[in-house]
Amino acid sequence: MISEKSIATEFKGFWNESLPLLTPSFVRVFNEANLNDLTEHPGTGMVRVPIGAQVQRHDLVAEFAFQLAKLAHEKSLWIEELKLHGNYVDSAYLNAVYFLKKYAADDGSIALNKEEIEEALIIAEQYDYFIEKQNSQNLEFSPQVAGAGFLGLCKADLSIDDTLYEVKTVSRNIAGKDIKQILIYLALQYSTGLRRWNYAGFYNPRRAQCYKFSIDHLIYRTSGGKSTSEFFSDVIDFLSSRGVELDTAF
What we know:
- By secondary structure, this protein is α+β, with helices and mostly antiparallel strands.
- The protein folds into two domains: 4-37 and 139-247, no CATH class; 58-134, no CATH class.
- The chain has helices at residues 4-9, 12-18, 24-34, 58-74, 79-82, 86-99, 114-134, 176-190, 215-223, 228-240, 244-247; strands at residues 35-37, 139-141, 144-145, 154-155, 158-160, 163-167, 199-204, 209-214.
- The strands form two sheets. A six-stranded mixed β-sheet has the order 1-8-7-6-5-2.
- Helix 4 (58-74) packs across helix 7 and helix 8 (176-190) crosses helix 10.
- The longest helix has 21 residues, at 114-134.
């Protein structure tokens, strides 16, 4: 089995054929047209969180923040309240380490330095502000989507009503590989026979930005006129085809 991130990055032949108009120029326009600066919203508490001078493990900080936000949502707590429960903070950290297996050798204690922990907590607070503004009736962290072919069960990041958000806690703009990754999740969900999301987007708690777009419109534009169901079927057929994993070097 390989990951959805690898599939989104590799297999250029499939992607070029299926989404011929998902070009660097399209992605550049996509960023300009869909970016929503959350710091400009009236009454928002959102701020940009630049990477601190002593922050080295950016991926662990980002995943720790995500797990803190997820646990706070599950416990119906604000991050400020969650911080008062050391066992909750430890649990979120262990979940982050488990997800990022390269840190799995840790003994379970908080291995991040003080600045990294503080930065993770600030980033986690950005989820509080973002979620509060959604007035959501149905919010779920880490929604599961069924696997297909050589891709196993996946977990997306954040479902808010009829929109699936992929969280990108990065200092860059959205890239073509990010769009492909979220389309894989959407195709996998489609394969179950239940279309759960009509919109998709990206949320960047570090830059206090989000993107939201119509799934149908994006696929129509980037595929050269294919319907959503046709494109999703192409993705599932590709994942289910034999020999693909063996033919590709990683």
